[in-house]
Write a structure and sequence with these properties.
The protein has 405 residues and is an alpha+beta fold.
Length: 405
Amino acid sequence: MAASVIMPALEMAQDTGKIVSWLKQEGDAVTKGEPILEIETDKAVVEVEATADGLLTGIMSREGEVVPVGVTIAWIVAPGEEPPVERPTITSAARIAEQARPKAATATRAAAESSPASDAAIRISPKARRMAKELCVDVSRIRGTGPDGAISGDDVLAASRLPAAVGTAVGESNAPESPPALATISRLMAERTTQSWTQVPHFYLVRDVDASALVQAREQMAPDIEHARGVKITHTDLLVALSARVLQQHPKLNATWTGDGVRTNPNVSISVAIAVPDGVVGAVIPNADTACVADIALLRRDLTDRARSGRLKPADLSGGTFTISNLGMYDIDAFSAIIAPPQAGSLAVGRITERVVAVDGQPAVRAMMTVTLSGDHRVIDGAQGALFLKDLAAAIQAPGATLGA
């Protein structure tokens, strides 16, 4: 029986995905779990795997096309089997709608396209409008390729590379040069952080924590885990496990903003910010609140290796409910992170360093660490965030008790 290959969804807010490249071609034999194409979403470029064994056929979307989530883009069939009837992609659907319009309406549209349209009459997505403003692109000079001629983000990016698309009069010799095209990951990161920074009401809470027990716990656990599982645990692995368990007690910090209200998540899945050559991706450790430190370390290492070699899968980026970003290995003392919507919180972790602090009224040297909570004020308030940090600090100071070790 034929199995469909569909455009996957990685998050609630994702409506479309762009096909970057087909790793297998029409008629190629594929096995279940084998990567067959790469897609670009709002998060990153990821691989899509075959859902069955068979022959790849009926490819309906070419490289570079933007396809709605859930639409079938190809089929996997048994030898000698024919694929089902085609389902239109976003491109063919727009073409069918265009052909169905009365000639008068088509003529009116053509006349409108021959001269710059008013800003109010232009069909353009909010994302594309923001991009046009940031890239100084005159949207009245863009011909949209989306449904009903709507201008998409890809249309704006294409126009930004053309000198005539810059918002200056044609014929002016002093028109500024178009900005260079960004690498895919860099562009996606720029778009997402801009969206979050401009739409999410951030607030920040900072706390210094005595991490001496955390350091000791890592030193005690590392030899056994490395011997048994072949992986070195990091402070990040311990922080993922501890934060996830504390989040169980603070469901608002693990909640999601839906646009209309707050939705609590039954599971705690931590997105770990991973640096890659062109930016940062958030790879997800699912059900981190019940996972042991060794399993977290193994998965974190695997995600890091695949992220840096461009082999992440859609499932690796979906379902995160809270983000941890650790820059301690870069000798950063403290920083504030931008929230990854629709999550409501993010924890920024600085380096662990020895400082002189007061202990029982006397100066003492302790391994200290600064953590900064970024909160979405639509979901949580300062008091809720402060209580979370208080409990997290207690867990860091007694990791054995929190982890049940």
